[in-house]
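Structure request: Transcriptional regulator, Kitasatospora indigofera.
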Amino acid sequence: MASVPAVRYRRIAGELRKLREAKGMSAEEVVAGVGGINLVKLSRYENARVQLKPEVVRALLDFYGCDEELKEVLVEILKEKRRPGWVAGYDQLNPLYTDLIRLEETAVGNKSYQVSFIPGLFQTRAYAHAIISMGVIKTPSVEERVEVRLARQSVLTRSENPLKVWAVIHESALSMSAADGVMADQLDKLIHLSRYPNVKIQIMPTVAPPNPGMTGPFALLEFRQRDLDLVLLSGMLSSNWVEDPDHVDIYRTAFDEIIATALDLDQSLSLIAQKRDQLK
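Returned structure:
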């Protein structure tokens, strides 16, 4: 069965604590007003140290007078754990990557900046295989990871609310040395994807002035409730989530500066096509 990403548990727990504090309520007042919960359990709920049950979370949200939209979003996230997920069949994946896949299924937007590689949501099979195979950290099954990466791309074409993806890619990523045809096919796919109504692709030119993208790649996941947005920072040995709303807003501002510095959509498409023509 699918599970709620750990990062989501922490955010929901944080919302419960924030709502209680915003109401000026003590833990004792909440326990007295909400049935089936004690001080220990409330503390564990607010610190994500136990499994969060939808019915208990709903009771707390009702008690705090939470608005209906936020309540619906939080409870729906918890109910996700009861639904089978396709990624559950791949037990060798990094847990954080599994979280990313699960989160993208409920996200409305993905804004990312990539320096060295084409974003995973845009990769062809051959390109993904080349990138995963070159990893310094070897995994048991390259083919399995390739299959997962390709399956993950279904969020771009899902029937209801396809994920809106806005990616800024550094120009250097368009010129990766690869086997014959690999990069050409990858650039063809970028050109094809740029026609999707839910996809925007911009290129950061090599000669661009200083900008926030120089600090490294990141991905901003956007949800129906802005306070639940997350940022993923990826590194060679480890990756981590940025969860604090104030810190997420810093990356939101950074992305706005990045897209303002990058080539516009038409210029970016022209550059991709130019790079593709050079591979003929």
